Amino acid sequence: MASDSTGPQSGYANLAGESAGQALGGRALGGRALEGQALELLRRPPSAERADAMRNRAAILAAAAALFAEHGVEAVSMDQVAAAAGVGKGTLFRRVGDKAGLAAALLDEREAALQEAILHGPPPLGPGAPNVDRLVAFTGAYLDYLLEHLDLVRMSETAAAGARYRIGAYQFWHLHVAILLMGTPDPEYAAHALLAPLAAEHVTAILPAIGEERIRAGAIDQARAAAARRPPPRSPSASGLA
CA 137 to CA 206: how far, in whole Å? Predict the structure, then answer.
């Protein structure tokens, strides 16, 4: 899900960057099945909840979704959400932490659906297609998700400095893209570079002037170019032939 490591994590484990780096550099990338296992490390089942807690959570999310749809994310206060959900403000803050945590909770199911499609869905988004085709499919699917929920993603990614890069969902996207870029000069860096223009704050800023069609075309062009990069040939001296 999209919450910061300091906030709710009901859907996804928030592994440290070191763990993802170990997966990229180690045996986890030895085969297609093991690649899936590396991504599965970033997922965990939702924690068990009491029936009353589940009802409160459902009421909060339903109320927030309705208010955000009617008034916009920025215009809605936590007091309004609590009142519409019929819960106390203390209950609301215990459930979601703050407004960014509320946005993250609303995004949880959408992110889970995309991640499930990446891991187990049909190609080209899911396994079974060439890496470049999977990368292009992911770029398009991620933009579908982002543009549909732009205000919520923006709030979850900008809750605090660097929040976007600490959340479990970003770590999943990054590891997935890096796996698809194996064989290029620096897949871990290239994955960050491809995801950077897809930050919600950036897309929000350029969308009025650039438009959705050009954003999509540019992102897909970047994905294809990144997948086509190869390390420079080794010199004779480097290969020990000098």
Answer: 22
